[in-house]
């Protein structure tokens, strides 16, 4: 149990979390208490073991939100939202909101992966076909043919794993790291990363406020959802400004990265309206819903055009390789 509490686990997949909160919402609506609901939940893979760990912790008297966080079943934000919802009454609405949130994220990720499956399969076929004419004509040995196939795969694997390592380094670096700032300057990817982080921050802040958490308690939890240290450093300055008497609209004025969000001015107007009318959580959620729709449309367009560009590059590469190999050109006998 000590290891369980000391070493945070990797969050469950979006799909698993959506299924978990969907089941919790249904059982809460049915009137089942938390312990009985957990006894009826069915999850596969690593979630099954984490579910069992959560049951053990709750049996020892630990509250459900803390037990789920310590076992890795809930993220830190999930736990804070559930704890606040439990304190306010029934958490059914929060379970349903989290289920919808993770369902949407899972669908977005699935769309990107499914759209790239055929291009990757095409690339694999191209790697086998490209050196085939030279192999058939005898100008390439079996070993050379295999090396022509494996060499691009090794390069692509190096680029993939090297890029993933750099990505993880950027996410785990300290707030003053230049790697994260450089990542945000990448074309297309940098803008999308900023928009996703801003959406997650304001969505988390809205959910916490809606659950009854105070602004000063909600802000650190919302800042934790920001992936990059350089963004966490900037947004950590909001709470001190509010403690000095500023409202959220004033605290956000001139904040970096807001200008890279779509309709950043609209966001500030929504916040100002929400603070003046006492409907800040609802106005923040309205903005994040609109921003999520915009991001989804952006990702959808990217998912549609990326495979086409990929197909085009593969076709050009194969055509150039085959034509430059001279495999289909007539050969003049040497003795003429």
Kindly describe this structure.
The structure is a single chain. With 336 residues, the protein is mainly alpha-helical. It is 76% helix and 0% strand. Among the domains are: 2-98, Receptor-associated Protein (Up-down Bundle), CATH 1.20.81; 189-294, Receptor-associated Protein. It is built from 17 helices and no strands. The protein is globular and about 75 Å long.
Question: Number of helical segments?
Answer: 17
Query: Quick one: biggest sheet?
Result: none
Helix content: over 70%
Order of helices and strands: HHHHHHHHHHHHHHHHH
How far do the termini sit from each other? Answer: 84 Å
The CATH architecture assignment of the domain at 189-294 turns out to be: Up-down Bundle
Q: Stretches where pLDDT falls below 50 for ≥5 residues?
A: 1-7
Number of strands: 0
CATH structural fold name of the domain at 189-294: Receptor-associated Protein
CATH superfamily of the domain at 189-294: Type II secretion system (T2SS), domain F
Structural class: mainly alpha
Assign an overall shape: globular
Strand content: under 5%
**Cα-atom radius of gyration:** 26 Å
Mean pLDDT: 80
Q: Can you tell me the CATH class of the domain at 189-294?
A: Mainly Alpha
């Amino acid at each position: 149990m000590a290891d369980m509490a000391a070493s945070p686990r990797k969050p469950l997949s979006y799909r698993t979390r959506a299924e978990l909160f969907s089941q919790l919402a249904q059982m809460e609506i049915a009137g089942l208490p938390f312990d009985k609901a957990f006894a009826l939940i069915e999850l596969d893979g690593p979630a099954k073991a984490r579910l069992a760990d959560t049951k053990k912790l709750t049996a020892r008297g630990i509250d459900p939100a803390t037990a789920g966080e310590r076992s890795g079943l809930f993220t830190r934000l999930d736990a804070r939202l559930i704890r606040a919802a439990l304190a306010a009454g029934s958490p059914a609405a929060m379970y349903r909101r989290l289920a919808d949130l993770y369902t949407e994220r899972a669908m977005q990720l699935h769309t990107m992966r499914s759209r790239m499956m055929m291009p990757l399969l095409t690339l694999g076929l191209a790697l086998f076909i490209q050196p085939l004419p030279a192999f058939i004509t005898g100008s390439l040995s079996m070993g050379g043919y295999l090396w022509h196939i494996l060499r691009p795969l090794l390069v692509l694997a190096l680029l993939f794993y090297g890029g993933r390592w750099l990505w993880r380094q950027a996410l785990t670096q300290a707030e003053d790291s230049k790697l994260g700032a450089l990542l945000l300057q990448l074309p297309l990817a940098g803008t999308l990363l900023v928009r996703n982080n801003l959406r997650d921050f304001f969505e988390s802040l809205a959910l916490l406020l809606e659950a009854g958490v105070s602004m000063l308690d909600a802000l650190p939890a919302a800042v934790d959802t920001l992936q990059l240290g350089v963004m966490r450093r900037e947004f950590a300055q909001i709470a001190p400004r509010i403690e000095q008497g500023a409202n959220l609209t004033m605290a956000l004025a001139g904040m970096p990265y807001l200008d890279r969000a779509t309709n950043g001015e609209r966001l500030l107007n929504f916040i100002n309206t929400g603070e003046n009318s006492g409907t800040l959580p609802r106005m923040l959620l309205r903005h994040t819903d609109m921003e999520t729709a915009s991001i989804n449309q952006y990702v959808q367009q990217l998912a549609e055009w990326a495979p086409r560009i990929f197909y085009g590059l593969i076709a050009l590469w194969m055509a150039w390789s085959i034509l430059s190999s001279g495999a289909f050109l007539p050969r003049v006998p040497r003795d003429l």
